[in-house]
Write a structure and sequence with these properties.
Shape: globular
Strand order of the largest sheet: 3-4-5-6
Distance between the termini: 32 Å
Number of helices: 8
Mean pLDDT: 96
Oligomer: single chain
Radius of gyration: 18 Å
Structural class: alpha/beta
Largest sheet: 4 strands, parallel
Length: about 240
């Protein structure tokens, strides 16, 4: 959804995925002028190759969206193996760090750029059993603040979007498996509905655009008011 939004606004988009064929298929949907590159964001050498390929294809990098991620296991913390914890930290947090660090020198040399990271309401609120995911996302929130302050003098803005509950094939699968209660989520959300991928895409687009020229170091919740709500009652009335 984010790639489509940027392509719609005239950006030339390079899509990365662990699987090159998936990235290529997504890029093909955008039409001519876009590209795809494979690579694991948790591997420094592969990140360097991704950035080099993008610069070779386009000559510059104006915007980076750090959107790579994998879901948590929803297991109790005491049952989570260390390799699960490490993989989520490596992809979400270390991946965001590595790609940002690789792209920043080019942006600084150009005279500026915009980085948009993917935080989450899980990085803001305490969600039981989401241990590794939440820790990684909270780390991304602080990384966003630090880099936004550090690179501000070089006109490289760094912000993040913190999605709430978004209706995707993955969340639909969790609902079907009984791991997510859709009505409970809607009751807890002041706007009373799930978000759409397009809602996140438009927020990313805004933070990357000149309209957000004086915004850096922030995590913007896009959650229908989920993080803001704190009353001991339902936020939205839903009949059982």
């Amino acid at each position: 959804a984010a790639a489509k939004a940027f392509a719609r606004e005239g950006a030339r988009v390079m899509i990365n995925d662990l699987r090159l064929e998936a990235a290529s298929a997504a890029a093909a949907e955008l039409g001519p002028g876009h590209g795809a590159v494979g690579g694991d964001v948790s591997k420094e050498a592969e990140v360097a190759a991704m950035v080099e390929a993008t610069l070779k294809a386009f000559g510059r990098i104006d915007i980076l969206v750090n959107n790579a991620g994998v879901p948590d296991s929803f297991l109790p913390t005491i049952d989570k193996p260390l390799d699960h914890w490490q993989r989520l930290i490596d992809i979400h947090l270390t991946g965001t760090y590595l790609v940002s660090r690789a792209v920043a020198p080019q942006m600084i040399a150009q005279g500026g750029g915009a980085i948009v990271n993917l935080n989450s309401i899980a990085g803001i609120l305490g969600l039981p059993v989401r241990t590794a995911y939440s820790a990684a996302k909270a780390g991304i929130g602080m990384l966003t603040r630090v880099l936004g302050c550090e690179w501000g003098p070089q006109k490289v803005r760094v912000n993040a979007v913190a999605p709430g509950y978004i209706l995707t094939p993955f969340t639909e699968k969790l609902m079907a498996e009984g791991k997510i209660d859709s009505k409970r989520i809607r009751r807890r959300t002041p706007m009373g509905e799930w978000g759409r991928p397009e809602d996140i895409a438009e927020a990313i687009l805004f933070l990357a655009s000149p309209r957000a020229r004086f915004i850096t170091g922030v995590s913007l919740p896009v959650d229908g008011g989920y993080c803001a709500f704190g009353a001991p009652s339902d936020a939205f009335p839903i009949e059982d």
